[in-house]
Amino acid sequence: MSSDVHGRTLRLELSDQSLRSFEATVLASSPDGIVVDRSAFYPGGGGQPADHGVLLWQGVETRIEGVRKNDDLHLIPAEGDPLPPPGTVVRAAVADERRSALMRTHSGLHVLCGVVFRDYGALVTGGNMEPFTARMDFNLPEVPPGFKETVEAACNAEIAADRRIDVRVLPRAEAFAIPDIIRTATNLVPPEVEEVRIIDIVGLDTQADGGTHVASTKQIGHIRVAKIESKGKGFRRLRISVSD
């Protein structure tokens, strides 16, 4: 199966991360979720939350408050909102400010990951994000003096360098031949995945990732390392914020 298809749904956001509106046909519909033939709603994963938005149909609006992944992608309607029947053509809109904020935040985490791996050799053990705020955990035994300020300055230098952020899909064997392509302490790419999506911050960081990203580091804005926490022996949590 193509990596751009999940169940019966073509995932438009994987090939066009700028897409915010699209037309689709409803395949199934219930209060638990709406299945459409094509969707630009990011369903969540890799620490990035699912998109929100609306479906417009026959003069009616259905708010979408998330996405659930199982055999199909199910767009989760707001409780009590009307449901478009199967066969209905809907006009969908992804909430732009939220998605754009998450793209900037996700790309900011990749800059952070790239800097900490390059300068300290630490791998990621976990992470999570909301719009403009995020955390990333590293297997970092020691925190050198001035670490917080040094990492923040290095991240913002990479942002100012306006590095291009490329997306490509490679066969699994070819992807895993790239040195250090997995930046997590545990390989999270399921064995049944035959094509691996690669996010490349050119000259800084190349890793497997399924999320959405801005086109260059300059679009991230500014990173502030807000706090460093100890999460047990050898593990550190870095909390960051992203701003203009």
From TrEMBL:
<dbReference type="Pfam" id="PF01411">
    <property type="entry name" value="tRNA-synt_2c"/>
</dbReference>
<dbReference type="InterPro" id="IPR051335">
    <property type="entry name" value="Alanyl-tRNA_Editing_Enzymes"/>
</dbReference>
<dbReference type="InterPro" id="IPR018163">
    <property type="entry name" value="Thr/Ala-tRNA-synth_IIc_edit"/>
</dbReference>
<dbReference type="InterPro" id="IPR018165">
    <property type="entry name" value="Ala-tRNA-synth_IIc_core"/>
</dbReference>
<dbReference type="InterPro" id="IPR018164">
    <property type="entry name" value="Ala-tRNA-synth_IIc_N"/>
</dbReference>
<protein>
    <submittedName>
        <fullName>Alanyl-tRNA editing protein</fullName>
    </submittedName>
</protein>
<dbReference type="InterPro" id="IPR009000">
    <property type="entry name" value="Transl_B-barrel_sf"/>
</dbReference>
<keyword id="KW-0479">Metal-binding</keyword>
<dbReference type="InterPro" id="IPR012947">
    <property type="entry name" value="tRNA_SAD"/>
</dbReference>
<dbReference type="Pfam" id="PF07973">
    <property type="entry name" value="tRNA_SAD"/>
</dbReference>
<feature type="domain" description="Alanyl-transfer RNA synthetases family profile">
    <location>
        <begin position="1"/>
        <end position="244"/>
    </location>
</feature>
<keyword id="KW-0862">Zinc</keyword>
